[in-house]
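Give me the fold.
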Amino acid sequence: MSITYAEARHILHDEALQHRDSIRASSETIPLKFSVNRIVKDAYDSPIYTPRWDTSAMDGYALRSEETQLASEDNPVTFRVVGTVAAGDEPLIVPGNAQTCVEIMTGARFPTVSSGKPFDCCVRIEDTSAVESTEDPKERLVRVSKPARHNQHKRIAGEDFAIGSRIIDSYTTIRPNHVMALASVGCTELTVLPKPRIALFSTGAELIVTSNTAQYVPDTNGPYLSTVLESLGYEVEFLGIIDDNPTATVQKILECQLQHYDVVITTGAVSAGRFDCVRQALEKLNADILFHHVAMRPGHPALFARLPDSSQQRATPFFGLPGNPVAAAACFRFLVLPYLRTLLFQQAETPITATLRLDVSDDERIKNASNKQVRFPQQADIFRAGQILPSSSPDREVRLIQDHSPGKIRPFVEADCWIHIRREVASLSDGDIVHVFPMV
């Protein structure tokens, strides 16, 4: 008997909550450069100010802005250059005489004056002109022909990150922009959650190349799910193809348990046909089947179970996904991935809202061209591949992919999102707001 999609999600959420403490306990510390796509265990706050000192944002001259207020093209102000400072140089201390300046490079620390008011701005090289001294050929002079502002082209100490500024929250997936920020405050390593080890199988004699295989069919789900899992930062091992018999399935599952995988996933052989042997194999293993058949389309045959293992402190979660490629993709996106997110302390994903756009040609169930509407079977959550439309309006617009057969791959190639139609929605009209999830 089917359970609702909401009930399936509730079961998966509760199971993940029970297992995730062991994930947290297995955290590891890794170099920052290897951390992208990993999930940081603890929040990280800046231990320093950045910039650590007042620094220049441009190549130019550090000087006092008040001394330029009367500057113009007809009446430029001349400054004497009393030093040069580059990024990384030791602090420079110079006399505080009037109309003096220091040549300063981008990122260099602002010089300190020994007396008088400090240099408070930088004038770009492009906004100055060199002048020859009539008194001393070795003396360097520059002219400024327009007023400068207080703190112009000057980075103030701590204006980027102050001590204690939050850079990344706990249980956040690390992205390259996080690496940039963390490196800027001197972080070289992070403590991250382990990558869940996932065992993946495809099932079906038709996928096995032998001398007796009359109609060989290439395996689609194994490569697809392996690629998706790896792109999301999980450690996945594709362990091959299982023949259509319970004995072979039992043997493969037992091998997974011996290697202590965190999750086991199979695709195919979960429906009600003669060769659909996954449930029978699980029953032979005395697995606890938490659900089999979910009121969702595609993906109705989806199965979730606990694999008992006396050598582990917890049972191993097992997902049996349908064999049709688009159905397997939908079940992964909306059953397996939410489980993995909860297991890794991630928040539930929030859908994007978009405006649905329908054409008469979009679906054979659109009945009226003047009142465009598409109908859906009730009592099931529907997941349809969609395509976000290029639009000049600020509101996102999306259309349904026309051919939504779970076994057809070509229409799926055009998709860049999923549209979730909840079970209580019987129809949608052009202009309705729908919930959209990006492809992964």
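The mean pLDDT is 89.
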